[in-house]
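Troubleshooting log. The previous structure file for this entry was overwritten by mistake, so regenerating from the original sequence record. Sequence copied from the archived sheet and checked twice against the printout by T.R.
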Amino acid sequence: MPSKPNILLIMADQLRADALGCYGNDVSRTPNIDALAAGGVCFENSFTPNPICVPARASITTGNYSHRAIGVKDNGGLIRDDQPRIGVHFASCGYETYACGKLHYAPYAPPGTPRLLHGIAHCDLAESGRILAKFDPKGELRGLEDYHDYLADVGWAGFSRAHGIGNNDVRPCPSPVPSEHHVDHWVADRTIERMRSHVRNVPGKPFFIWCSFPKPHAPYDPPAEYVNMYDVRDIPPPVGDESMLADRNPYLQWTRITHALDSLSPQARLVIKGYYYALITHQDAQIGRVLDVLNQTQQSDNTIVVYVSDHGDLMGDFGMYFKCSFLEGSIRVPIIIKGPGIPAAGRRKQLVGLQDVLPTLAELTGCPLADEVDGVSLVPASRDDSAEVREIFYAQCLDDPNQSAMVCDGRFKYIYSQAGPTEQLYDLQADPHELVNLASRSDAEQLLEPWRRRLIDEARRLGDVAILDGEDLVSSKLDRASYAALGVTGMGWRWY
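Regenerated output below.
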């Protein structure tokens, strides 16, 4: 048994917190994740610092906000050399480091060059065809994405996207690939094999395994047998409607047009939500398989298990899907921690985020970080529901001229969008579904001014200076009417 605890970081892609039973959903079936939460601490007010894939993952990796970690707030950017990196850090502390699944570390390495892994020693990669789209769109090469190669080896070459649905396309369809070869099943298989091999070959060395599932990110294509678990007529409809977007972040209206979301009927939205839940239930089963092997290899008592998602999915709320929004479905993510020194059945109300994962793991393992980061350790909060973490949570998204930022104190949420500019203010206690934008009230100014100052103060404290214009917030022109001329784009249609 290693002297330091193992780390198993389990991650979903585009999973909103309230899609889990342990976060209050009584329709979605997630028994294994719920059991994990019951055995550890579930943080109920948990956010992503940036609701986009690459910057959110950069924050997990470095403990810092994306403007500091990668220099941008959009879906790209190389992690800077001066940043701590989770793989490098734990390797330097004597851990063997593994990653199975999706990392989404940008930029992707061309064929024949080393992968960009930021200190991860062993990797089984499934990037949902992103590397293939860039360098090998017809899938003729091996060695770019390991899951693509695996499908060829088991006789299912090219079928992962044979339903024709794009990577950012909400139209649902069962996967053409059998469930035992589905990507989330494969990620669990590789995680299990890495774990078993490690325990067998280097039992005295702790492991860091990042088990990173590509789902439930679109395409919403679960195995057929999981689709049949849900009667879509029983699924609660999304909240709000598209008419409520008129006084909100204009990026939502832009995306609604470019992704042809106005073509979806109310019934179609229920079907999409049912497929989303089916993906989550399938992933939950794979997590159960991984945790079973953790028990079988007698590693459970000496392993820190963390479950998170990079961001959520609006999943039909206000007629919208995907992320890039500070509305609840997009910004709220699960953060669950179980392991040595973590009490069971804990429910915590503190404001926490993905930037807190690295400093938390550093404290739990006795491997302190060399430099201060934006995130804070959640160890005190995990053990004491009154421990202070932060009074306000700050989040950021996109770059000029479409920047937006958020501050939330747990009750009130203020959102500023550069375009317009556009402001939103919600009382989450009185209006948990954010149906009423208080910023549109005739007397809103007296409510908004103190929240603007709080956002400005937090942006300045954290160094997010791009959102600032001197003592005020930056703004840019907005013409919502021009969106009508936009075409359908960004659906991510490709062969693989």
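Residues 266-296 form the longest helix (31 residues). Archived copy saved in two places this time.
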